[in-house]
Amino acid sequence: MVTHVRDEIKQTRPFASREQEAHVSLGRTWAVVEHAFSEALKPYGITPTQYNVLRILRGAGEQGLCRSEVMERMIAKVPDATRLLDRMEAAGLIGRERDAADRRFVTTRITREGVRLLGELDEPVHELHRQHFGALDEEHLRSLIKLLGRIRGSV
């Protein structure tokens, strides 16, 4: 089923341009998908942003990453990374350790609990992605990924 963003947002006048319609449609799509993702994560007690941090740290392995490296890899930038990591550490999902030689350098690593939680989420998240993008075949998915990359590259 194809929906039109003008109908969804109850806009009665035409968009000023196709670019404006594409912008609004992309934003609306992200909002719908992100809300569904957020709702799916609620029973596990984490947000999409926290999930993103955990995936980044799981990928980094035992060596971990410093705060700025984690933030560079985030899907969406967050205004207060330190508080985000503080909350995740308090929840036992990550651990931080100061470097003995340079106390300014702090390495962040995923904990066993964080790894366990991600493992528990792997299949439900994969299924959610299949639901969200199931209307697209492999060719359309590749095309979508390529088009989105072109947009990001132009910004």
Could you walk me through the main structural features you see in this protein, from its secondary elements to its overall organization?
This protein is mainly alpha-helical and 155 residues long. The chain has a domain at 47-154: Orthogonal Bundle (Arc Repressor Mutant, subunit A), CATH 1.10.10.10. The protein contains seven helices and three strands, in the order H-H-H-E-H-H-E-E-H-H. The protein has helices at residues 5-8, 18-41, 48-60, 67-73, 81-90, 112-133, 138-154; strands at residues 65-66, 94-98, 106-110. It has a three-stranded antiparallel β-sheet with strand order 1-3-2. A hairpin with a 7-residue loop joins strand 2 (94-98) and strand 3. The mean pLDDT is 93.
